[in-house]
Amino acid sequence: MTHLSVNINKIATLRNARGGNVPNLLKVAADIERFGAEGITIHPRPDERHIRYQDARDLTKVVTTEYNIEGNPNPKFIDLVLETKPTQVTLVPDAIDAITSNAGWDTIAHKDFLKDVIKTFKENGIRTSIFVDANTKMVEGASEIGTDRIELYTESYAKAFDENKKEEGISPFIRAAIVANSLGLGINAGHDLSLDNIKYFKDSIPHLLEVSIGHALICESLYFGLDNVINMYLNKLK
Ligand SMILES: CC(=O)[C@@H](O)[C@H](O)COP(=O)(O)O
Ligand SMILES: NCC(=O)COP(=O)(O)O
């Protein structure tokens, strides 16, 4: 079974647009869990353009399913994660000015740094995941770092799917997943997954533990409603 973790960055984007507390991020997170999602993901960025660091703290009192915090492990992020102790931390190599995440880690070039950070989080009882491209060398590098899981960066798959090249798009992900499974790494995936492309991805990738989905899920909810959309994903992930 593949768990659905809903990324609520876009709820915070909407709230911040007016400077007040509508929509109420904490209530939406609780409702998303009530509708059946198995996790909540946030990705606070240094400029706090959507999720604020205080949101990450407040959510610890609300989230009862899996709590996943994603981000670039700069000192402020590391302190936040150690303070909030989520179920899982996902390390993402975000450039400071990137509009969204646009690459996985080079797990060979950054091996020593990532090893230290992963060790710190694991010593504090936090499950770790490293965001990587569907590249078997990067998966092997992640294994050497000692992470519990990897998160496969799925933008290239989503793009290929849109261009009617789904078989071509999925192949590197199948290869990466086979290597990850053989090395005992848990497999998560995310970025640009949607109601259209999720089923083929889930059916193709062996032992997919979790997907985190935000942008498309919130857009789809404008038409179908959050409750319906979450249940549509849950059906496709069975
Ligand atoms: C790690 C990842 O794949 C991102 O999709 C991310 O969590 C979304 O971040 P933004 O909402 O800031 O685009
Ligand atoms: N880790 C990916 C994530 O949380 C959501 O990505 P997206 O669905 O907003 O592209």
Automatic annotation (TrEMBL):
Pathway in which the depicted protein is active: Cofactor biosynthesis; pyridoxine 5'-phosphate biosynthesis; pyridoxine 5'-phosphate from D-erythrose 4-phosphate: step 5/5
Key words, A-Z: Cytoplasm, Pyridoxine biosynthesis, Transferase
GO MF assignments: pyridoxine 5'-phosphate synthase activity
Keyword Transferase in record: yes
Listed EC numbers: 2.6.99.2
Localization per record: Cytoplasm
The reaction(s) this protein catalyses: 3-amino-2-oxopropyl phosphate + 1-deoxy-D-xylulose 5-phosphate = pyridoxine 5'-phosphate + phosphate + 2 H2O + H(+)
A cellular-component GO term for this protein: cytosol
Any one Gene Ontology BP term: pyridoxine biosynthetic process
Residues the record marks as site: Transition state stabilizer: 151
Residues forming the catalytic site: 43 (proton acceptor), 70 (proton acceptor), 191 (proton donor)
Pfam family membership, one: PdxJ
This protein's record includes keyword Transferase: yes
Residues binding 1-deoxy-D-xylulose 5-phosphate: 45, 50, 100
Positions of 3-amino-2-oxopropyl phosphate binding: 7, 18, 192, 214-215
InterPro entries: Aldolase_TIM, PyrdxlP_synth_PdxJ, Pyridoxine-5'_phos_synth
PANTHER family: PYRIDOXINE 5'-PHOSPHATE SYNTHASE (PTHR30456)
Subunit structure: Homooctamer; tetramer of dimers.
Family: Belongs to the PNP synthase family.
Primary role: Catalyzes the complicated ring closure reaction between the two acyclic compounds 1-deoxy-D-xylulose-5-phosphate (DXP) and 3-amino-2-oxopropyl phosphate (1-amino-acetone-3-phosphate or AAP) to form pyridoxine 5'-phosphate (PNP) and inorganic phosphate.
HAMAP family, per the entry: PdxJ
Protein name: Pyridoxine 5'-phosphate synthase
Protein species of origin: Maribacter algarum
Gene name tied to this protein: pdxJ
